[in-house]
Structure prediction request, 413 residues.
Amino acid sequence: MISESVAAFPIEKIGKDFPILQQEVYGKPLVYFDNAASTQKPQVVIDAISDYYQQINSNVHRGVHHLSQKATDAFEASRETIRKHINARESHEVLFTKGTTDSINLVANSLSQGMIKAGDEIIVSHLEHHSNIVPWQMLCERTGAKLRVIPINERGELIQEDFEKLLNAKTKLVAVNHISNALGVINPIKEMIAKAHASDAWVLIDGAQSIPHMKVDVQDLDADFYAFSGHKIFGPTGIGVLYGKEALLEQMPPYQGGGEMIAEVTFEKTTYATLPHKFEAGTPHIEGGIVLGTAIDYVNSIGLEAIAAYEQELLHYGTELLKDRFPDLRILGDTEHKTSVISFLLGDIHPYDIGVILDKLGVAVRTGHHCTQPIMQHFGISGTIRASFAFYNTKAEIDQMAEALEKAHNMLA
Ligand code: 7TS
Prediction:
């Protein structure tokens, strides 16, 4: 049964908003199922980039002249759009960064300057992208803090009892993703944040995979930090966000020094700017910051609830179709609580071989470890085939993937 909201989803109109998707690859209609890696951009986003350079390009927060003020106003208006979108209390709690990786490194670097010390503990999970593991390992090397890891079960879910056992008086920070990029599993972060707070630990949520698929309310979650990337929510690359609670950001030392982030500089002593500028050294990615707001407005014009319902329908359809068609299919992360990712293996065929054949048949999927080698180690595999959907994808495209998989399977099995 398809719900009314899914039946009414304006997929025809949406498809036309994305010019890149209109092309053929090797003579076949392009099916783009690598949305967890990066999303395509609607025409309004592409236009906003060129409008910026044609109309208001100038440096921000510096000039008194007309263009600089226009650019500054647009940049700050976008910060406010993002604040509203994630329901942060203050717009200066929204910091512009290069992306999720940069946001996490900002926190890890800043906290390592005295706020996390030898003997403290950081908890990550077995389900993390490398960018939510390596910065914490580096912090541990610098500070003498210790990394602890929440294990996962056979369905790729975090084992909550083990998480509770890891929490203790030494725990300073818990860093987990909202949704796993490799498996699509949604973690119960609201409950996890409450548990961590009961142990007086801060929590950083890697929201790279949740921001395009669901409504995020940082106050309701009570997250201390929330990181995401613009390019995964239909915006430009090279721009992202770190949300942080004001009181915590105030306490934290800056991560990088330079222009923009200072109040006053003398050779004897430098004082720092107020938030958010304290954490935004140098000329920012101005056009990226502005256009990220455009991308978020576009997503909201469709509505995240409608998007989530439509994508769940795609996930369900694709999962059932593949299970029916391929008896030797193995889905990794086969749980009820997941977003539109199907990560799978077909018999003992190498994922790469399947990926190459799918590509020749017009279907773009990701193969490999998806920057989550510990997950692959857990399952004793080298990688998976990952089809990750966005709201512009269709059931007909899933059918095209299934056909292509059938051919690949016949050739390789
Ligand atoms: N965290 C998660 C959960 C991610 O999925 C990614 C990127 C990152 C962090 C890093 O984001 P970046 O924008 O800073 O690079 N994930 C993927 C992926 O699944 N395939 O390519 C990139």
The pocket of 7TS is lined by residues 36-37, 99-101, 129, 131-132, 177, 181, 206, 208-209, 229, 366, 370-371 (CB under 6 Å). The mean pLDDT is 97. The two ends are 34 Å apart (CA to CA). The domain at 46-301 is CATH 3.40.640.10 (Aspartate Aminotransferase; domain 2).
